[in-house]
Amino acid sequence: MLTKPLGRVDYAPTAQAMQAFTEARSPDTPDELWVCEHPPVFTQGLAGKADHVLFNPPGPDHIPVVQTNRGGQVTYHGPGQVVAYPLVDLKRQGIYVKEYVFRLEQALIKTLEVLGVTGHRVAGAPGIYVRLNDPAGHAALSEPADPRDPFKGLGKVAALGIKVSRHCTYHGVALNVAMNLSPYDRINPCGYTGLKTVDLASLGVNVPWDEAAALLAGKLGTWLSP
For the chain, N or C: smaller number of CB within 10 Å? Predict the structure, then answer.
């Protein structure tokens, strides 16, 4: 898989480029991994509801909202977040979408592990979560979760939203490294009211963006290898 570092790029043209790459690729096109950072933007998935953007004032603090064709609901991208877009031919890999999602989440978990943080899955809520009172603790989450508050005591440190077209993937994952988290207060992240969003810095892990990006790219390369 060829890794392409894009730097800081606007969201909309990057999404358009991913779609164009996917539509133009052939069965012989090598898979690619695009790694980047975006200026502040809210993105709405196919299931996104307008009322999950709670407030977004006009003027200098306004953050654009971009409609996308990925799965999921509203999320935020901004400086200090590593965004990785795997462009993978699942048919050539011989895996189905469920396995692909598992591998994406596993790459995120293994990235966090290197940094001393234990990532967790929450059933029915794609992405990676951490226990706020013990981010490095290895104890599994209690099951079943409290149905009244399935995210009690948890913070979301990485989001996931994908699109699959003709067995080929685009969109991808976002890992919060050291960012301004206040825009998350303007939305119901991924459609969940009151879900707390965290970054590595708020968990006490200070890692340069470039280092986190290289680490995540390496883990994705490993977990998405045939």
Answer: C
Is 118 a residue whose pLDDT tops 90? yes
Active-site residue flag, 36: no
Distance CA 126, CA 177 (A): 18
- Tell me the average pLDDT across 71-78: 86
Which tops the pLDDT comparison, 104 or 151?
Answer: 104
- Choose the catalytic residue: 63, 154, 177, 190: 190
Say which residues have a Cβ less than 8 Å from residue 157's Cβ, sequence separation at least 6: 112, 117, 119, 128, 129, 130, 175, 176, 197, 198, 199, 200, 203
Q: Sign (positive/negative) of CA torsion 211, 213, 215, 217?
A: negative
What is residue 204's predicted lDDT score, i.e. its pLDDT? 95
Write out the H or E segment, with its range, that includes residue 3. strand 2-8
Domains and CATH numbers, the chain: 2-223 (3.30.930.10)
